[in-house]
Amino acid sequence: MRHLLGIEGWRRDELEALLDKAQAHLPGKPDTTHILRGKVVANLFFEDSTRTRTSFHMAAKGLGASVMNWTQSGSSVSKGETLLDTARNIEATGPVAIVMRHKSSGAPHLVAKHVRCAVINAGDGTHEHPSQALLDAFTLRQRWGALDGRTVLIVGDLLHSRVARSNLLCLKALGARVVMCGPPTLIPPGLESLGAEVTHNLDAVLPQADAVMCLRLQLERQSENFLPSIREFSRLFGLNPAREERMKPEAVVMHPGPINRGVEISPAVADGPRSVILEQVSNGVAVRRAILEVCAS
Amino acid sequence: MSSTVLFRRGRVIDPRNGVDGIRDVLVRDGKVAEVSEALLPVPSSAEVVDASGKWVLPGFIDLHVHLREPGEEGKETVLTGCRAAVAGGFTAVVAMPNTKVVNDNGIVTELILSRARAANLCHVYPAGAITKGLKGEEMAEMGELVSAGCVAITDDGRPVMNAALMRRALQYSTQFDVPIMVHEEDLTLSAGGAMHEGPTSTRLGLRGIPASAEVAMVARDLVLLEETGARLHLAHVSCEGSVRLIREAKRRGLRVTSEVTPHHLILDDRAVEGYDTHAKMAPPLRSNRDVEALREAIADGTVEAIATDHAPHGVLDKLVEFEKGINGIIGLETAFSLTMELVHSGVLPPKRAVELLTHGPAKAFGLPGGHLAPGAPADVTVVDPSEEWTVDAHRFHSRSRNTPFHGRKQQGRVVQTWVGGRKVFENGQVGLSKESR
């Protein structure tokens, strides 16, 4: 049993072993339903999710487990039940793993200290989203074989993005160069100390990238004065067809979803030939099967 | 009843009176009677304390504690807070007004004082609120608070965001010559923050509180202080920038005093690692560079007091998501040994360390005690500077357990605490001995 609370704490060889395992879970590979047969995986989603929740659900099913889907709406959280009480009660029903998403950074770490089953972080606040980073790395490895020496450009709201943090750690661990780009108000201090190169000039770095990952701009950020307007953000940091033309011929475009079409990425780019956005989603199931296999079996 | 006590051959450190050496200290009728280099004859019926190998110090004074009564007696009461105080060598504490019935009027002040009399352990000096209900809107009746016994006026826990109101409060306070104590935090800069803004907050994905949230308010209030000629006391200073401004203001003769907590001197923001809510407080633990600046400031006299900001909270207040975790930790029973860490590591000479716990705070608020000249109150703390022990939160006298120092090895321990010539703490036991009750 092992927790997956973040990419932090996982060594390169461990990450690579997990990604190698994910290969065996791609569609068309031999049946894997014996791995967690008779076991229960609990999905605890304190925050909304489309991709991650369904993906973990399908992954657990694919390993033969039954899935308990718990969501905050309709639960006793509205009656004031604490996170720990909720988690311990879910644990008491006997799952081998708790897959949880929560709006507070560190919430899975708290739960992991108080339960005996594996805890898998499906996104905590603005901290980490490790399964997303792993499926992104998997998608890039499928294309490139290895990430060493490749440049991945991550663009947008880096301050509030758990995807950005996990990807930075994961991509660096796997040997890639990571350039992070956004307005100064949406760049947290000390990203460089985690290995990123930081810039505010998208056009200058765009031609260097082998992959461009656009992050969702949380539209409510405008009311906190991080940005003068969505329009200006889009003009400075949106990936549009004009910018796409200046990318390397083979470079790909990624997005963890959900997309604000026309804000951080133009529809023509999101749906265009460079886009691997739906590949990311497809690969998510195989990668999450590998995560469950490594952590819960 | 034994009213005469002779502390024999201890190392007496009394910074105010320039004493640091082996002395006999004779206490009679609740006051210091004599301090002598030579052996004093033992008066008949005197209790003799063999202090050889120990330090005999003025009782410690804490300018910043939360006793939680009235209103949150599950966390602490005046009695349990006083027990924790004397167990930590403190003979006087200043009680913050942010109780759940706010100490913004004389009736609450009287209640706290009457609870303190009933506890009968150490001096409790209430601090009254600057604004009614700590709401930052209307000034509380400062005259009534002062005449009821408040020694400082503060909205601690909250800043006074309204600059005009703060200016009036400072102006108004000059007629009583009472210090206005401030918790400096610009709420528009700290909004949503859970820890110090820096590389650690970035890695943990927690919204940061920039140093400017404190420093900008310190700057504002020093400007207002200069205009009003009042007395300003800055609570729990946490940043290098604040220290720089205080130093400059003092150079120009402004009447500003300040305090630093042991935890801001010992820990930095990396203590939050693992989302430990026991490392969550306001102001937050800052960067290592800030810690270094604070250490320099207590050593060179820029800051005059170490104060605990003893903030008792229940277990459930801390056993939650980090962002939801309540701010604050308790400190009365670890303050001395944590200060000794700074002595053992060479940051502070013993005399300065003692001054920060005694004369420094006494002078800042104009409180009695803090020294051991003949005629001074016989508030005496005897410590063993080298005794090794391990912090065990379950053995605290405080009603609460919220400390990040549980399990930490310490060197230096309070052995006895005497208040007004009566022994109120000895070797882990709080309470008056039968003969001095």
Automatic annotation (TrEMBL), chain A:
Keywords: Pyrimidine biosynthesis, Transferase
EC id: 2.1.3.2
Catalytic activity: carbamoyl phosphate + L-aspartate = N-carbamoyl-L-aspartate + phosphate + H(+)
Residue positions binding carbamoyl phosphate: 51-52, 101, 129, 132, 257-258
Domain Aspartate/ornithine carbamoyltransferase carbamoyl-P binding: 2-142
GO cellular-component term (any): cytosol
Binding site for L-aspartate: 79, 162, 216
GO terms assigned for molecular function: amino acid binding; aspartate carbamoyltransferase activity
Superkingdom: Bacteria
Protein's GO biological process: 'de novo' pyrimidine nucleobase biosynthetic process; 'de novo' UMP biosynthetic process; amino acid metabolic process
InterPro entries to which the protein is assigned, alphabetical: Asp/Orn_carbamoyltranf_P-bd, Asp/Orn_carbamoylTrfase, Asp/Orn_carbamoylTrfase_sf, Asp_carbamoyltransf, Asp_carbamoyltransf_Asp/Orn-bd
Family membership: Belongs to the aspartate/ornithine carbamoyltransferase superfamily. ATCase family.
Protein's job: Catalyzes the condensation of carbamoyl phosphate and aspartate to form carbamoyl aspartate and inorganic phosphate, the committed step in the de novo pyrimidine nucleotide biosynthesis pathway.
Subunit record text: Heterododecamer (2C3:3R2) of six catalytic PyrB chains organized as two trimers (C3), and six regulatory PyrI chains organized as three dimers (R2).
Protein name per Swiss-Prot or TrEMBL: Aspartate carbamoyltransferase
Provenance organism: Pyxidicoccus fallax
Organism taxonomic ancestry: Bacteria, Pseudomonadati, Myxococcota, Myxococcia, Myxococcales
TrEMBL record, chain B:
Protein name: Dihydroorotase
Domain Dihydroorotase catalytic: from-to ranges: 53-239
Cellular component terms per the entry's GO annotation: cytoplasm
Cofactor: Zn(2+)
Database matches in NCBIfam families: pyrC_multi (TIGR00857)
Binding residues for Zn(2+) 2: 156, 183, 236
Residues that, per the record, bind substrate: 66-68, 98, 313
Pathway: Pyrimidine metabolism; UMP biosynthesis via de novo pathway; (S)-dihydroorotate from bicarbonate: step 3/3
PROSITE patterns associated with the record: DIHYDROOROTASE_1, DIHYDROOROTASE_2
Enzyme's top EC category: hydrolase
Residues forming the catalytic site: 309
Enzyme Commission (EC) number: 3.5.2.3
Amidohydrolase domain residues: 246-425
